[in-house]
Amino acid sequence: MNKEFELLRIFRVTAESSSFRDAAVRLGTSPQGVTRAIQRLEQHYGEMLFHRTTRQVRITAFGEGLLEQVRPALERFEDLWRIPGADQQASLSGTVRITAPHSLGTRAVLPALERVAARHPGITLDVRLSDRVSNPVDEGIDVGIRVGFMRDSRFVARKAADMRLPIVAAPRLIKKVGVPEGIESLARLPVTAAVDINTGRPWPWHFKAGHQWTPTSPAFIADNADMEMGAALAGIAFAQLADYMAAPYIASGKLVQVLEQEGPPAWGLYVYRPQRGPVSGRVRVVFDELRAAVGSLPVLR
Q1: How far is CA 91 from the centre of its chain?
Q2: Alpha-carbon span 215 to 129, nearest angstrom
Q3: Scanning 44, 157, 227, 300, which has the fewest C-beta atoms within 10 Å of its C-beta?
Q4: Which helix (H) or strand (E) holds 221?
Q5: Considering the entire predicted model, what is its pTM?
Q6: What is the CATH number of domain 2-81?
Q7: What is the pLDDT of residues 263-280, one digit of tens each?
Q8: Superkingdom, according to UniProt (predicted)?
Q9: Contact yes or no for 227/234 (Cβ under 8 A)
């Protein structure tokens, strides 16, 4: 079992690295050793795990699926191996800088940091909410939350939850204009548009099989997800929202989900650290609490 475990550990590190050479440096071995380990796994599964070129390696679809299974198993082992009380033995004082999207501020970040503050009053919590894509390393971020697959090899990322993207509207709007029969019919209905503050353009709506649709004549435009949800609750327009926002209102009947059969696959919600290597106790505490809080967000049943 030790050999199999080590092969999977090498695979995870390689998947989070830019190349076999980068993975070898992080593992303290040779690129040839990494190559042999990946080849053994590929022979075992009968599938390619990486597309290789002379310049780079890129994980395959099968590899990504395997990585999603391997990560939690290895993380569980790491949790079990951690010395009890190790975090408490460290100096739990100093500043931890956290970043997350605005929509997760009061829903996940604040509940997590309330627990940190109650247990460790020596930690100063510096929160910077932003929907802008930035460089966490340059900004001195210690812990962050991000939507989507984490590929940056500098980061330590742990998937905390899945996020679905339902299309919703208030019952009174549906009574007034009807239910969309398909994606194309959305163009004839009042919809919201979420502005991507990185580009100034509307975000596309996402559907199954990678299909996207971008509102061209929206009834409501916002650069804040809670404003967009407010427009849906007010009966102004249909909106595509994260399920951790919409699920409680769908359960209460204040919002109705439509086009359920067209929904895209779930996206991952990741808690990450921009820096590898030894981690201080204060950062570990915040990281673990954020991960637990994101894992407790409302979901669609």
Answers
A1: 29
A2: 26
A3: 44
A4: strand 220-222
A5: 0.71
A6: 1.10.10.10
A7: 999 999 999 988 666 678
A8: Bacteria
A9: no
